[in-house]
Amino acid sequence: MDLRDFDVAAFLQDYWQQKPLLIRSPWDGWSNPVEPDELAGLACEPLVESRIITRREHAWELEHGPVAESRFAQAGRDPWTLLVQSVDHHVASVAALLDQFRFVPNWRVDDVMVSYAVDGGGVGAHFDHYDVFLVQGLGRRRWEIGPLCDDETPLLRHDGLRLLADFRATEEWILEPGDILYVPPRVAHRGTAIGDDCMTYSIGFRAPSRGELIEAWADDMVPELSDSDRYTDPHLAQQDNPGEISAEAITRLQHMIAETLLDRSRFARWFGQFNTAPKNPEIDWRPDHPAGVDEIRQWLSEGRPLVRNPASRFSFIRETASSIMLFADGQCFACAEDTAGFAQAICGEAQLAVAPNSSAATLELITALFNTGCLAFDLED
């Protein structure tokens, strides 16, 4: 499936992080990527994050997975919705859906959450702090759009759900299979299934908060700072009042922090590792027996393409015209020349054919990524 007649440049210029957009059936041929039974099966797995949200007469009920197989047979008459996170990490056809949205950088992609709802099912009116594309897979869903929200927007009292206490729709659409609704951050929205067997694919994007970045960056940096690196004030001038913290002292103290925090090279390396830390490390593709460079070369010579672990995160940061830092699942690899070319290619493609006569450095990198489970070969005959 490919998007057709979709003006990416116009979308990024006029809609991205600005206003919602309804995109009617933009595919050259729509096919629902995962069947309801397969989604229900994933929800029963202990390592898959899932939830069931039920709308009772006067309250919302939240159940966390794993879901017992018998639970679906026991579902009552109240409208309910099943939500399964990171389905792209488990189902290749759902992972392929992400390829159509690569006009947004990979480092911003979070995952694909898939929902299944019976008639009237939904998760209530809410807002997110990130962009989302809502792709209708099966059935029909009514989407209502409301105003911009913020931290002061009143919410219903609920331990597990952030639902709006007062939602008033300003726009409304009914989505059919293959339709897409883009919703920017903080825009209130509510989706309600019309009929049974309603499936929606929510492609969410990461948006780290300032507090999250500062906390994680500081936690990584502090252990490496020397205890002997301390405040100094040579040529101290006598003050009229010893109780004053002088402007000079504040400037010197702030500089101690700023000089460390503003180390751009160190921050870039840290962020690449932080951002590619795996969301689902339990999806382990490490081989039973580590491979050597000779084995890797042999598989490449047989024409076997490399494939990325769908749960792995790959990104790179350019250092010079011929060198980059490759990041894969929180690891950093310095790459230059043809190795840098390979690293950039594997960041952009989920599957890649590599020449067996690649440089020793490239083969060593492939071997390292294979043995850590970031890459694999299709070794089936």
Strand count, sense and closure of the main sheet? Answer: 9 strands, antiparallel
Radius of gyration: 25 Å
Structural class: alpha+beta
Query: Could you give the distance between the termini?
Result: 27 Å
- Strand fraction: 25-35%
Work out the helix count: 10
What number of domains?
A: 2
Low-confidence runs: none
CATH architecture of the largest domain: Sandwich
Overall geometry comes to globular
The CATH superfamily label of the largest domain reads Cupin
GO molecular function: 2-oxoglutarate-dependent dioxygenase activity; metal ion binding
Cofactor: Fe(2+)
Organism: Erythrobacter sanguineus
Protein name: 50S ribosomal protein L16 3-hydroxylase
Describe the secondary structure blueprint for this structure.
Elements: H1 8-14, E1 21-23, H2 36-43, E2 50-55, E3 60-64, H3 69-73, E4 80-84, H4 92-98, E5 109-117, E6 132-148, E7 171-175, E8 180-183, E9 187-205, H5 210-221, H6 247-261, H7 264-275, H8 293-301, E10 306-308, E11 314-318, E12 323-328, E13 331-336, H9 337-348, E14 351-352, H10 360-371, E15 375-377
Antiparallel strand pairs: 1-8, 2-3, 2-4, 4-5, 5-9, 6-7, 6-8, 6-9, 10-14, 10-15, 11-12, 12-13
